[in-house]
Amino acid sequence: MAKTQVNPTRMELTKLKKKLTTAIRGHKLLKDKRDELMRQFLDLVRENKSLREKVEQGILAANKNFVLARSSMQEEVLKVSLMASKQEVFLDTSKKNVMSVDIPQFEYRTKTPDLNDIYSYGFAFTSSDLDDAVLSLQEILPDMLRLAQIEKSCQLMAAEIEKTRRRVNALEHVMIPELREKIKFIVMKLDENERSTQIRLMKVKDMMLEKAHRYNERESLEA
Amino acid sequence: MYKVAVIGDQDSIYGFAALGLDTYPVTEKEEAAKLLKTLVEGQYAIIYITESLQAELEAEIDRHITSYLPAIIPIPGVSGNTGRGMRNVKKSVERAVGSDIIFNND
């Protein structure tokens, strides 16, 4: 299987053996990383799912309220009333490191602490349905921001898990077997060399003894 | 310091303006793509986008999936829930696990 050429030398063997231990250690570490990432990812994704269900329902309900509000108001009045909002939402982000994946943490601040600042219009010309609609949207906002944070984290972690899984598989199924194969090849080659040297020495010894004692001649004389 | 943007058709998103999010009403696909590009480079940490628009801009949005910020999150529009948002979550599960083990194909 060793397609690539390796030099059957002791130096190469030591190098490969060192590489193999590193690969095995890396494989173990990456596997642990993958398992831990997966565990956290699954928790996160479950939360993501339930949160998304909640947010989608909330937005749907809010949209219904807005439709109601629109039906009882003039289009222009409605547009004008939402045109200049008093409130503003700011986000502070920080990074959280989960198994070497940076996931964002959002913290939101509003420009004014007054909750009623979401009503950016006078109450004289607008229907109360609009108040309800805006309020229902306001209530879902914290969940929406949390959903954004969790969904982004899920996406980032999914990408990291995919990458880690590939690496684990590459090590497990390609790198490590290949290294083992190469090591085996070198060991076999070295053993073979050793045997052939030994045989050669034995042969040489035989030849030298032969020369010194002339066994062959003696045997023929005795016979 | 970052802000939050909402992209979509006017009817789906105008309510968010009252809460203090920046709303950008668009309908045309090309226009939306251009807008998305400028928003991604701008001061936005979260960009909410209506599901119908998300469907059209999927390639552009997927490009930002692995970048740290911004988070581009689909939300249902006024025309109702198309399930695309959920499918996105499903997609990340499939990406990570290899098969869908959370939603069980529902």
Would you kindly provide a written description of the structure presented here, covering whatever features stand out?
The complex is a heterodimer of chains A (223) and B (106). Chain A is mostly helical. Chain A has a single domain (10-177), classed as Helix Hairpins. In chain A, 73% of the residues lie in helices and 9% in strands. In chain A, strands 1-2 form a two-stranded antiparallel sheet. In chain A, 26% of the residues are buried. The model of chain A has no long low-confidence stretch (mean pLDDT 86). With 106 residues, chain B is α/β, with parallel strands linked by helices. Chain B is 45% helix and 22% strand. Chain B contains five helices and four strands. Chain B has a four-stranded parallel beta sheet with strand order 2-1-3-4, with helices on both faces. The radius of gyration of chain B is 14 Å and the shape is globular. The termini of chain B are far apart. The mean pLDDT of chain B is 83. At the A-B interface, helix 1, strand 1, strand 2 and helix 3 of A face strand 1, helix 1, strand 3, strand 4 and helix 5 of B. Strand 1 (89-98) of chain A pairs antiparallel with strand 1 (2-8) of chain B, so a sheet runs across the interface.
What is the CATH first-level class name of chain A?
Answer: Mainly Alpha
Predict the CATH topology of chain A: Helix Hairpins
The N- and C-terminal alpha carbons of chain B lie at a distance of 39 Å
Distance, first to last CA of chain A = 57 Å
Provide the structure class of chain A. Answer: mainly alpha
Task: Give the secondary structure arrangement, pairings included.
The complex is a heterodimer of chains A (about 220) and B (about 110).
Chain A: H1 10-71, H2 75-81, E1 89-98, E2 101-110, H3 128-213, H4 215-222
Antiparallel strand pairs in A: 1-2
Chain B: E1 2-8, H1 10-19, E2 22-25, H2 29-41, E3 44-50, H3 51-56, H4 58-62, E4 71-75, H5 84-97
Parallel strand pairs in B: 1-2, 1-3, 3-4
